[in-house]
Amino acid sequence: MPRMNTFAVILHALRVNAALLVTGIERFVFKSYGYKYETYC
């Protein structure tokens, strides 16, 4: 059981880190190329 709990915690941490990384990349891209998207839209 402890192994399963630890594995679940690690998976949850990886999911949170991946989500934060993706949002950070999206924010960086939006700040860098936001004006291009605005002109296209």
Can you give a write-up of this model?
The chain is mostly helical. The protein has one domain (1-41). The protein contains 1 helix and no strands. It has one helix spanning 2-40.
Q: What distinguishing features does this structure have?
A:
1 helix; mainly alpha; 41 residues
SSE layout and pairing:
Elements: H1 2-40
Query: Main sheet?
Result: none
* Mean pLDDT figure: 82
What is the N-to-C succession of helices and strands?
H
Rg over CA atoms, rounded to whole Å, is 17 Å
Please, how many helices? 1
**Terminal CA distance:** 52 Å
Q: Detail the poorly predicted runs.
A: none
Based on DSSP secondary structure assignment, what is the total number of beta strands? 0
Bin the helical content.
over 70%
The fraction of residues in strands falls at under 5%
Class from secondary-structure proportions: mainly alpha
The total domain count is: 1
Form type: rod-shaped
Summarize the structure.
The chain is mostly helical.
